[in-house]
Structure formats: structure tokens, C-alpha cells
Design a protein that fits this description.
This protein is α+β, with helices and mostly antiparallel strands. The chain is built from 6 helices and 8 strands.
Length: about 180
């Protein structure tokens, strides 16, 4: 499955993407903000492609201009409530592409795919409280704040995480405006 936006192609990851993935996944500004450690080498990026990024409905974000993989976006397989009716959106983007609206563009296309092709009724998303870039993407995509929860990861104990939800009806309403 390949999804398109004005500036990106969203497609499954391939082994040949390991170097591009490593180029942004090694940056300490990327992984820790999403709850994972920076990649140590290209081999770790390849393992991530074979495990995490091999899941259905996870896409490499390919910049049309350069042809490089500059991020990832997709569903992480964490439904809330009835299985199959909801999922959680996850994403990461190379800092070289921050501030251009690229993630909002890619995430919006994946939301459309989730609601129209996968038949999801609700899509969840979350960010650590200090991650303002992610918060802005979530808000621009139309999510509503649902609740906050303190969670621990390898970087911090008791980290405030903000959870958001976008219901299919609300997504449709936004699109019809």
C-alpha cells in the first residue's frame, strides 16, 4: 500500500531504507521524545525495520524531492476499547524536516486511510508533556485532549503523557468544512 501527499510518498519500509532511518534515528532529539533510545548503528535501524516497522499500516515517509526516507508514521497496534475499532497513531521525523508541516501532512493522510480504508471509529495519539512539536501536530490534525497519565520509560520515571482522541464523526465534520 502506497499513500501519497503533495510532498511525500508513504510506503512500507524496505531493507534499503536502513541508512536513511539511521540518519535521523541516531539523533538524540528524535527517539527520546518518542520514548525510544537513539539508534547506535545502521544494523539497529535494520532490526527496527524488520520488527517495529514491519507491522501492517506503518509507513516510511519518503520526501518526494530528495527521494530519502525522512520519517515514519502509522498505527502502532494499540486499540483502546473494542479491538479493531480504534488504534494509536505514532510518528517520528528527521529534525532536518521539522517546522515545514510535513508530519501534519503525512499524519493527516494516514488518518484518512485509518478512517476510510481500515474502518477505524477512533484514533488515539499521545505525546510527552514537554514535546511541543508533537502536540502541535496532534492539534493540527484535529485530535481532542482526552486525559493525562504519568508513565515511566528508560529516560525518566513518572513522565507526564498527554493522550488525545479523534473520533471518525469529528474527522468527517472537519473534512466537510
Amino acid at each position: 500500500m502506497i499513500l501519497e501527499t503533495a510532498r511525500t510518498l508513504l510506503r512500507p519500509f524496505a531493507d534499503g531504507d536502513a541508512s536513511d532511518l539511521y540518519a535521523y534515528a541516531r539523533d538524540p532529539r528524535v527517539g527520546p521524545a518518542a520514548g525510544w533510545k537513539p539508534h547506535a548503528n545502521v544494523e539497529e535501524s535494520l532490526r527496527t525495520i524488520h520488527t517495529v516497522f514491519s507491522a501492517p499500516n506503518v509507513f516510511a515517509i519518503v520526501d518526494r524531492e530528495s527521494g530519502h526516507v525522512v520519517g515514519s508514521v502509522g498505527f502502532v497496534g494499540r486499540p483502546r476499547g473494542e479491538e479493531g475499532l480504534s488504534d494509536e497513531l505514532g510518528y517520528a521525523l528527521s529534525p532536518a524536516y521539522w517546522g515545514r508541516g510535513l508530519m501534519t501532512e503525512a499524519a493527516s493522510r494516514v488518518l484518512e486511510y485509518g478512517f476510510t480504508v481500515l474502518g477505524l471509529q477512533a484514533i488515539w495519539c499521545s505525546h510527552y508533556a514537554e514535546n511541543d512539536r508533537s502536540r502541535r501536530v496532534i492539534e493540527r490534525c484535529g485530535f481532542s485532549h482526552a486525559f493525562d497519565q504519568r508513565l515511566s520509560d528508560e529516560f525518566a520515571e513518572d513522565r507526564l503523557t498527554r493522550f488525545y482522541v479523534l473520533l471518525r464523526e469529528d474527522w468527517k465534520r472537519r473534512r466537510s468544512r
